[in-house]
Amino acid sequence: MPALLLEEQIARDELKRLLSDRLWRLSNLYWITDKQGKRVKFQLNWAQEELLRDVWYCNLNLKARQIGITTFWCILYLDVSFFNPNIRCGMIAHSLDDARAIFRDKIKYPFENLPDQLRLANPSIRDSAYELALANNSSIRVGASLRGGTFQYLHVSELGKIAAKYPEKAREIRTGSLNTIQAGQYVSIESTAEGTEGDFFELCQEAQAQQRQGTKLTPMDFKFFFFPWWREPQYRIDPDGVIIGEEFKRYFETLAIEHGIHLDAAQKAWYAVKAKSQQGDMKREFPSFAGEAFEASVEGAYYSEHMARAELDGRIGTFEALPGYPVHTASDIGRRDYNPVWFFQILPGRIRLLHFYQNCGEAMPHYADYARKLYAKTGWRRSEDAIDYFPHDARVEEWGSGKTRLEQLIAAGWHPRIPTEMSLHDGINAVRAILPICEFDAEGCSEGIKALKNYRKTWNDERGVWSDTPYHNWASHGSDAMRIIACAHRDIEAPKPEPKQPKSGLTLGAFRDEMLRARSDRNMRP
After folding, report:
1. What CATH number is attached to the domain comprising 346?
2. Domain holding 77: CATH number?
């Protein structure tokens, strides 16, 4: 064989060997546009390398913004389609515009920038705004829902947002698109978190539980991946001149003590500066740990900024009832729906939320009995000046009892009062006005805090904006009861507790210590 032909054969054999290596292909063949719009060669970053190394049949990705997870799955599925015949890949986004943008930038552009020899060997035979079909009978299709097709590979982008804005579309994806995937085929779902409800949240909860328990996964179980902001090397800036406020110092200290996350000065500076623009969205868009992502306020939430500020200010934490001040209640009445009750104190210059309870399907005596036991257990002050606030429908006669709810409450020893009624939107603004002076006991009010963080507007699909109408779900009831507090708190004058005289023989310091020991024992809470 002539020397030149032998060299060509060696080159062809080497190329054939390289092209059979997926890692080499992903690191050398594909071009994308970067954040500045420049053409750059696709190179796996730390998160993408982790996904490629540990990929499972069903993959669930909770992540911070701009980590490149969607780009990874698009390039991977393009690679699978291009180098394997008879493959069907589907990509779902939360809107057709987003689907078209993903297809244009992350699938079509990398395909069109493949080496000419490869594209000539496997050209496109159908190329539209939503589908790329290749000569090897493989194809990639994108859309807002892909119910009608059968796919071996399926990717869902931003399922959290889809579930929050379009619950019916999320259901269609779950019952339709995901059902096209059989055991042993591949699914990838990625999203930032959107509150503690919806398909993405439920999938993550189940996958995390299996991960903690070390459960062996079947091909139909989801494997959980979490990519926090602090693992991204680009998320850091020169700390010189950046002032880290006390609220962020507390936050970083909590990350270190409770979660073992130790940040350097450049990371802390980046986070503090980024949080100024993100405000209440920071923990959702750039979570430090998985639980934080879901605990953060959802997009379109009425009180997102205020609850984020309360966390940063340390007003969500350990807060016990102060002796000498009565503990009031505020309830929103529901029989078939949830009936929530907030327990709170009005203190000089602030409102202290101590406990939150809700149930459904129970009549008023149930809540009266719960409150009686709670007061007895905690030692909270329950006197004539403790007021129980209710909405106007407390005057309605309860079916089956022959008595109004107010009559039942008075008979049970409550002190009901109905505050001045406000319109829905005035009440929401009233809550916004009082949240800066609210303190929440994190343990006693955990469910109520979740309700306030998840109380959100309804998405208007036609206009593509959040409407100013509340979305009615589980978070509505606790938030409605909070409006009762906002309407009522000015009616309650914070009393000054009467000074108690030291017991005979006690020094003033010993008396103070005794008073501290006399505070309610947190372990007594139900």
Report:
1. 3.30.420.280
2. 3.40.50.300
Domain assignment present for 298: no
14 assigned to some structural domain: no
Shared domain for 245 and 208, answered yes or no, is no
- Cα 467 to Cα 418: distance, rounded to the nearest angstrom: 29
Amino acid, res. 19? L
Q: Are the C-beta atoms of 377 and 320 separated by less than 8 Å?
A: no
Rounded to whole angstroms, the Cα distance separating 3 from 285 reads 59
Dist CA 469 CA 294 (whole Å): 23
CA–CA separation, 388 and 370 (whole Å): 14
Instruction: Specify whether 277 is located in the same domain as 360.
Output: no
Task: Report yes or no: 47 and 67 within 8 Å, Cβ to Cβ.
Answer: yes
pLDDT tens across the length of the chain (526 residues):
455 555 566 677 888 888 999 999 999 999 999 888 899 999 999 999 999 999 999 999 999 888 999 999 999 999 999 999 999 999 998 888 889 999 999 999 999 999 998 999 999 998 888 899 999 999 999 988 776 668 899 999 989 888 887 777 888 888 777 777 777 789 999 998 887 778 888 899 999 999 988 989 999 999 999 999 999 999 999 999 999 989 899 999 999 999 999 999 999 999 999 998 887 788 888 999 998 888 776 778 889 889 988 988 889 999 999 998 999 999 987 655 688 999 999 999 999 999 999 998 787 778 888 998 999 999 998 877 889 998 877 666 554 556 777 777 787 778 888 888 788 889 999 999 999 999 999 999 999 999 998 898 887 766 666 777 888 888 899 999 999 999 887 766 555 554 444 444 444 444 344 444 444 443 333 3
69 and 105 inside one domain: yes
Range of the domain at 360: 317-510
Same domain? 96 vs 186: yes
Residue 306 domain-assigned (yes or no)? no
Q: How many domains does the chain have?
A: 3
Distance CA 442, CA 355 (A): 9
pTM here?
0.73
DSSP-assigned letter for residue 320: P
Residue that finishes a domain, picked among 264, 286, 308: 286
The size of the chain, in residues, is: 526
- The burial class, CB within 10 Å (0-12 / 13-18 / 19+), for 153 is buried
Inside any domain, residue 11:
no
Same domain, 477 and 453: yes
Query: Do 221 and 249 fall into the same domain?
Result: no
